[in-house]
Specification:
The chain is an alpha+beta fold and 298 residues long. It has a domain at 49-208: Up-down Bundle (Substrate Binding Domain Of Dnak, Chain:A, Domain 2). It has helices at residues 2-11, 34-46, 51-120, 125-154, 156-201, and strands spanning 17-19, 31-33, 215-216, 226-227, 244-248, 269-273, 278-283, 286-291, 295-297. A 5-stranded antiparallel β-sheet has the order 8-7-6-5-9, with no helix packed on it. Strands 1-2 form a two-stranded antiparallel ribbon. Strands 3-4 form a two-stranded antiparallel ribbon. Strand 7 and strand 8 (286-291) form a beta hairpin. Helix 1 (2-11) packs antiparallel against helix 2 (34-46) and helix 3 (51-120) runs antiparallel to helix 5 (156-201). The protein is elongated and about 110 Å long. It starts with a helix and ends with a strand. Pfam families: BAR, SH3_1. Residues 241-298 form the SH3 domain. Keywords: Coiled coil, Membrane, SH3 domain.
């Protein structure tokens, strides 16, 4: 049942943010949010329905599309206001401080080595000169390190402000998401009441093309009705013309028992395209599902 797969992938943080890896014709990598996959899935089934049920599916799809848009806006701003500055300046400064600390450690080791030389032969002028140079180098190394640390500390307020901006961006996202789902709850309750009242007074004449669906009311606990794959050739890809090899663009960790874990550059065989989001394939004698966007056909 791939509706649950699509929904679970939205709820699992490790799989919220996936790159398509598409760089054809100079296109930069784009980001695929799992909500968009869920929207596609819901819209596909809502086309076969009408009336209140159709409206409920449409409201769900619209809300999840909003969430995907909110995420895109949030991630773009986090990249600009937080991640880019951290990568461009903060990490560079910290890396420089680490190198200066190592330089101090090396200078101290040179001083200790030179001191041992003078202890063995106090009259050796070369050994004395070496110790003098080593002490001078150590002093310079310590001064450079201290200047770098002081400079880093002076900019603390600006760095902390980046974290504030990042937190505010997240705060705005979660507020918008909460508002969107609050509106969805209100809309669905209205639709539910309209449907219930229509059934009671006999005015609910909506028709749903159940003959176009394979419905199983008892397929999964927790769902009154579970929507299965359509028998429509446009959706059902079970009868593929031969097997097809593909290459994994990214690592994929199985999310369910019937999933197939992949490592980047693995070459599984596609046995079946279940829908627009999932393949069913085989690798090293194991079979299972894996996302369409994680592989490319070869």
């Amino acid at each position: 049942m791939h509706f649950r797969k699509a929904l679970n992938s939205v709820l699992q943080p490790p799989h919220r943010f996936k790159s398509t890896g598409s760089t054809k014709k100079g296109k930069a990598n784009t980001v695929v949010y799992e909500e968009k996959g869920l929207v596609t899935y819901i819209n596909k089934y809502s086309e076969r329905t009408s009336g209140n049920f159709h409206q409920a599916l449409q409201d769900m799809a619209n809300t999840y599309q909003q969430i995907a848009d909110f995420k895109s806006y949030r991630d773009s701003h986090l990249q600009t206001e937080l991640f880019d500055p951290i990568n461009g300046s903060v990490l560079t400064e910290l890396d420089n401080i680490s190198k200066l600390k190592k330089a101090v450690t090396d200078a101290e080791a040179e001083v200790n080595s030179a001191r041992k030389g003078t202890e063995k032969n106090p009259q050796d002028q070369a050994a004395g000169d070496r110790l003098s140079r080593a002490n001078g180098n150590l002093s310079q190394a310590k001064e450079k390190l201290q200047r770098a640390i002081d400079s880093f500390k002076r900019d603390d307020a600006n760095r902390i402000n980046m974290f504030v901006q990042g937190a505010q961006i997240q705060q705005e996202f979660y507020k918008k998401a909460a508002d969107a789902f609050s509106q969805l709850v209100a809309n669905l309750n209205t639709i539910k009441e309209r449907s219930t009242n229509g059934m009671l007074d006999g005015s609910n004449n909506e028709r749903i093309s159940y003959d176009k669906m394979n419905m199983n009311q008892y397929d999964e606990p927790g769902y009154s009705t579970t929507i299965k794959n359509f028998s429509s050739p446009a959706v059902n890809h079970k009868e593929m013309n031969g097997r097809c090899k593909c290459r994994a663009l990214y690592d994929f960790t199985a999310e369910a028992d019937d999933d197939l874990s992949l490592r980047k550059n693995d070459e599984p065989t596609i046995l079946e395209q279940v829908d627009d989001q999932w393949y069913y394939g085989e690798l090293n004698g194991k079979k299972g599902h894996f996302p369409v966007e994680f592989v490319e056909k070869i």
